Amino acid sequence: MEFKINVVAVLVAVVINFVLGFVWYTPLFGKIWGKEMGYDPNMKPDKSVMLKGMAFMVIGNFLFAWVLAWTMAGWQFIPGAKEMGPLVNAVNSAIFLWLGFYFPGHLGATVWEKKSWKLFAINGGYHLASLLVVAFILAYWS
What we know:
By secondary structure, the protein is mostly helical. It has five helices and no strands. It has helices at residues 7-28, 30-37, 47-75, 81-112, 117-140. It starts with 6 loop residues before the first helix and ends with a helix.
């Protein structure tokens, strides 16, 4: 058994996921997300704080794409998985992982930490979209 990970696909997924996060949390849902998080809309973060946050986001995106690539590669050893094709593989991977790992965490935060359902939708939607985008890149570029 040999796991094949396309490092270029992982790196492209990191960049695309970073852009998706920027678009999701800035022009699309930035104001609503900030309000739901309780941030002052007039306060602008310090430039060094923003750069540090972006650096950690890139590291997180790399770990996310790398682990997803390994997970998807591992699932190829399940009988019949190769016959499903990249589209089904990507969608199944994304939804399966979102339901098992992200959805419960967001649900718990909403119920126990008294986060809003709007915040649940914004963050949960981002994580599902992120999984789908990265899974498509990895599935089609493997």
